[in-house]
Amino acid sequence: MDDVMLKLKPARRERLADVLYGQILEQIASGQMAEGAKLPSEARICRDFQVSRPVVREALMRLQADGLVVSRQGIGTFVKSRPSNKLTDFAASAEIASYLRAFEPRLALETECAGLAAMRRTKAQLNQIGEALAALEGAFARGETGWEEDFAFHLAVAAAAGNELFPRLLEELGDILRGSMRMALSLTRQGSEDRRRRVLEEHRKIFTAISGQNRELARLYMRYHLTESRARITGSHGDL
């Protein structure tokens, strides 16, 4: 009898790098590796995690890009900052890398959406953004995460940019964006009152700039909001 042909897909290196990223992140967040601690060598990580050197380099590169580790040439890689130990309560460790990567296309896409929305928004579209903002404020007041309301706000801004491709692109990224928003706002809900106030204030500034048809301010405030959101996840602010 002939052997059955199996249709197998090779394991993606990016996925392995995400898994390794998540495991190292867990050890940093839990305090097993303290700030300033030196990570094992690439060769040691390859052996311990049973992955190739390119996978290790990819994971370390992403950890460095996220501000969690710093590489010192000829010396090694060290823990730079420690995110909340609650981070992995709100997302699987292997998913966190992809959630953080989502901020890069968001910065390019949503910054421009905000600027165009300030120029092109209709009264009805501005009202829709305002309603989404009010819904987010209400969710925070009730002690809810508010990630669905947050997504609705950003989608309303994209729709107001006057090009139907913008909201379609956000919807295409919907799963990963919702996951990153859920993770970020879950941390915000667990954080300080000042942190929650700042998150709402960032959204209000975006709305005010769009309302006032100030393109540059709208772009600036959207970029600032997304940059701060990412920093809050990685623990750069230390205000958990």
UniProtKB/TrEMBL annotation:
Molecular function GO terms recorded: DNA binding; DNA-binding transcription factor activity
Domain HTH gntR-type stretches: 14-82
Coiled coil: none
Annotated Pfam families: FCD (PF07729), GntR (PF00392)
PROSITE patterns given in the database record: HTH_GNTR (PS50949)
UniProt key word DNA-binding: yes
Family annotation (InterPro entries): GntR_C, TF_FadR/GntR_C, Tscrpt_reg_HTH_GntR, WH-like_DNA-bd_sf, WH_DNA-bd_sf
Domain of life (superkingdom): Bacteria
Keywords: DNA-binding, Transcription, Transcription regulation
Listed name of the protein: FCD domain-containing protein
Organism expressing this protein natively: Sinorhizobium terangae
Organism lineage string: Bacteria, Pseudomonadati, Pseudomonadota, Alphaproteobacteria, Hyphomicrobiales
